[in-house]
Specification:
With 386 residues, the protein is α/β, with parallel strands linked by helices. 40% of the residues lie in helices and 14% in strands. The strands form 3 sheets. It has a 7-stranded mixed beta sheet, sandwiched between helices. It has a 3-stranded antiparallel beta sheet with strand order 9-12-11. Helix 5 (102-113) crosses helix 9, helix 7 (156-162) runs parallel beside helix 8 and helix 11 runs parallel beside helix 13 (372-385).
Length: 386
């Protein structure tokens, strides 16, 4: 008997994440002896802070590595609540769910609020995996165009204009990936109110919220009733490989989120949670703040030096470690350019098509996740290749 395997049409429709293909090819070139400069993946180049590593080592020696509750250790949930309460309304521990990274937090949030056939507004440009997660819930991702004049961020007016009867939620990010721009707090509150009037949800990604060049702007969690916040230990705390994140959700939907976590994920990594208890210590936060200033300087360096090479940055990034750069006038295809730069200059950057529908061929994303000297060398190579 012959068997013809057929995958789900929903799964088959998932577009490729081109940056991961570029990364794999870059690794092949490195294995062949080439010196490759990475400006593509949003992963901090610093190691996990030493106090976190020490806490993990101590936990391995003294504590059982058994399952924790599905939404995390109570002591860690309380620590996250206290940390999240800085500068905004008091967050209660029972409003926190610890998850296996921010991706798991977003999956739980969307699964809790979406039904098959619902629509979700997603800013363009934006993080592409969000659309895949919406589709996985049986809902429909809907592109929400943004403008340069609004720093590639939605406004209350644009959200209201795009909202339809089938719309259930809007997913926002501030600072955003790939642009590094932020939504002013007053605008975010206005969006929450507009969406709330229509019976919808705002899912807010704030994983880069501490990686800004100014004082972090607190979100109105606890002030409005329709806001779910997604966060992570990966970026600011340098724990990418530990796969640990969290969400803040209004109390009425937390039982649903907990049941989903019990069935879909069982529990986050016990060791990662034990280590993360040191993430909010004074020593760790001092290290994180030092790194924040380094990322800010690198990002500003990229913006300055890209301008000398004919690139333009129409919306100035003030957070994360990304620069969303428009190509020089004589270059028309960002996808082709990124492959040529890898092959001819051993430099990896991300094509616009990974993040945008509108004008994707005119933009690339640079990640300031390597040293200033390597960034400068990478831009010299790009200039020579172009």
């Amino acid at each position: 008997m012959s068997f013809n395997p057929v995958v789900s049409p929903r799964a088959a429709a998932i577009p490729p994440f081109h940056v991961m293909d570029l990364l794999a090819r870059a690794k092949e070139r490195e294995a062949a002896g080439h010196d490759v400069i990475h400006m593509e993946v949003g992963e901090p180049d610093f190691p996990t802070p030493a106090p976190i590593v020490a806490a993990a080592q101590a936990a391995l020696e003294t504590q059982r590595q058994s399952y924790t509750p599905a939404i995390g250790l109570p002591v860690l949930r309380g620590a996250i609540a206290n940390y999240s309460s800085i500068g905004r309304a008091q967050v209660a521990g029972h409003s926190v769910a610890v998850t296996g990274g921010a991706s798991a937090a977003l999956q739980l949030a969307l699964t809790a609020i979406l039904s098959v056939g619902d629509e979700v507004l997603l800013p363009d440009p934006g993080y592409p995996c969000n659309a895949v997660m919406v589709s996985a819930c049986g809902a429909k991702p809907v592109s929400l165009p943004t403008t340069m004049s609004a720093n590639f961020q939605p406004t209350a007016e644009s959200v209201a204009a795009a909202w339809r009867e089938e719309t259930r939620a809007v997913v926002l990010a501030s600072p955003a990936n790939p642009t590094g721009t932020v939504i002013p707090n007053a605008e975010l509150l206005a969006i929450c109110n507009v969406v709330g009037e229509r019976g919808g949800w705002v899912v807010f990604d704030e994983i880069y919220g501490k990686l800004v060049s100014t004082e972090p702007v607190p979100t109105p969690f606890g002030i409005v009733d329709n806001l779910i916040c997604i966060n992570s230990f990966s970026k600011y705390h340098g724990m990418t490989g530990w796969r640990l994140g969290w969400l803040l959700a209004p109390e009425p939907i937390m039982p649903t989120i907990e049941r989903l976590a019990q069935n879909l994920m069982l529990a986050p990594s016990t060791l990662a949670q034990q280590a993360a208890l040191a993430a909010f210590s004074v020593d760790t936060l001092d290290i994180c703040e030092q790194r924040r200033h380094i990322f800010n300087r690198r990002r500003e360096q990229l913006v300055r030096e890209l301008a000398t090479q004919g690139f333009s940055v129409p919306a100035q990034p003030v957070g994360a470690f990304y620069v969303w750069a428009q190509l020089p006038a004589e270059v028309s295809d960002s996808f082709a350019l990124t492959h040529r730069l890898l092959n001819e200059a051993n430099v990896v950057v991300t094509p616009g098509c990974d993040f945008a529908i509108d004008s994707a061929d005119r933009f690339v994303r640079f990640a300031a996740t390597t040293s200033s000297a390597r960034l400068r060398e990478g831009l010299k190579r790009i200039t020579a290749a172009m």
